[in-house]
Amino acid sequence: MTDKSVEKTTTSNQLVGKDGRTTIADTVVSKIAGIAAREVSGVYALGGGAARAVGALRERIPGSSTNHSQGVSVEVGERQAAVDVQLVAEYGVSLADLASGIRRNVIASIERMTGLEVTEVNIEIQDVHLETEENTEDTSSEPRVK
User: Fold this and answer.
1) Packing angle of the helix pair 26-38, 95-114 (nearest 10 deg)
2) The domain 3-139: what is its CATH number?
3) Chain center to CA of 143
4) How far apart are CA 15 and CA 137, in angstroms?
5) What is the pLDDT of residues 13-60, one digit of tens each?
6) Confidence at 131, pLDDT banded by 50, 70, 90
7) Could you tell me where the DSSP H helices lie in 21-94?
8) Which residue ranges make up each domain of the chain?
9) pLDDT exceeds cutoff 80 at 110
10) Among 45, 31, 43, CA closest to 73
11) Alpha carbon of 78 to those of 21, 25, 137: distances in Å?
12) Among 117, 108, 32, which Cα is nearest to 82's?
């Protein structure tokens, strides 16, 4: 046995043991990561432009559900997981603090729920959301002067 396997937490050791093996699917880990990332204040949306457009269309279909793993990709092994998150941040939020908060929340959620050790959480901030972007269409039809 190597020194690293001795250092593993008891929950990680419970995934592979003498009584059998527990396999956790990539989709499970990506959903957990997506929900955990959305919980952090300052996250406007997850995913790049194309993923958000497809997600918006999907949500308009009656009976469809929200894709909680949108903008999240994972690599899951027997005892470890690595996570990549793409997101749009709210304007005015410290991006370094946002990334740190997302990283903490994603790691804590995955490790608590699955017992997997999270080796890394890479965060790609693709855009910053401005409130004025949504309001420009509403005010453009009104005349500026009377």
Assistant:
1) 140
2) 3.30.70.1350
3) 42
4) 52
5) 567 788 888 899 999 999 999 999 999 999 999 987 654 444 555 456
6) confident
7) 26-38, 49-60
8) 3-139
9) yes
10) 31
11) 9, 10, 50
12) 117
